[in-house]
């Protein structure tokens, strides 16, 4: 009995020399594409000549990503992110704040919840007194002058007729004084202010605050009494002169001009 058996299938392979130089594939990506196209194999050894010896095995498929119609494709190439242009602002980035600016804002916000002391020249006293007022500074804006609440704090004879308050910033050297005052025709003459400026008959009251650079008001000023007195005298002269001439009172006075 003759047994018929098929000879074992031989693994077909072919070896050929690629005479083209490696300059045909200048990059690794082009070389991988050449492998996928079947022009060469992933296993090769370079020769000493200008060509490349490549062994192609038909039973060894090229491993890749399966694309449409079950066709092997090369893996996608990850592209680096596009760099931003020079000096381009980064989105959603908070601008840095200097330490000095931060301390000013912190001290300013804390002072909003504190009481303010001012030097008051009352109607029925020959001497000024220190009195506590409620301050209302502008939120988060130290460059603006603060406001002071005078409700039920001025000794006005007629509370039903609120007076018109004149606010003025007086500059004296490196010191800044914020002065509030009012005048009413039916009010008594302020004797304390008559001592400061005898030529002015001020019928009302005046209160003086010292304005700081980092906080709205300074509790203990380094200004002398004479500096405060001169600032009040200058305020009385210019405000009363403007009111007598039916003009708008000044909101800022410099002590560089002698009174």
TrEMBL record:
Q: State the organism of origin.
A: Collybia nuda
The organism's lineage is: Eukaryota, Fungi, Dikarya, Basidiomycota, Agaricomycotina
Protein name, entry field: Uncharacterized protein
